[in-house]
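Predict the 3D structure for this chain.
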Amino acid sequence: AVDAAGAALDTAGQALGPASTDDFAAAVQALALAVRTGAPTPGDAIRALAQLVTYAADGSASGAALTLQAESVRLFRRAAAAQLVLAAADYEPLSDADAEAVRAIVVSALDAAISEAGDNGDDELFQALQAMKAAAVADINARGAALPELRTVSTPASLPSLALAHRLYGDIGREAELVSRARPRHPAFMPTSFKALSE
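Done. Predicted structure below.
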């Protein structure tokens, strides 16, 4: 889907002219949408779109071509930022720290777009992006407030992950969660200090 959207964007770019700007803008938005919906998980979509919102053009354009290039880059970044907000809405954070990290990514992307809109005197877009940022932050904050905190687990000696899962949560079914957070060389020998959910 991303390859097809990229090819369609290339075609729209080749045909770009005064009468085809809407087609080009639609192709840009379709590419950002394909990146989000084509990602295996919302977390993967956030990581991909976080890179796309920092897109910078290569080359040494000048004159009208430089203006067109600059406006195209802004369009790419805005489309990616909008899809990033939607990906963040779909994402289920595992802890308050996880929610904070996602919020920071979204705020950084939107702040950059808001600054560009302000610098260009585009008041309508500036206000729309401000409203989007406020809604996204409120949503992430509300969902993150109900999540457990990450805490540091320290043990005097290395223990098996199953024993730690039982000791921390009374549930050996959460052993895989501990292993994924601590990343031990072997689950039978967990590190003596690592981060885990408080509950």
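The chain has a mean pLDDT of 88.
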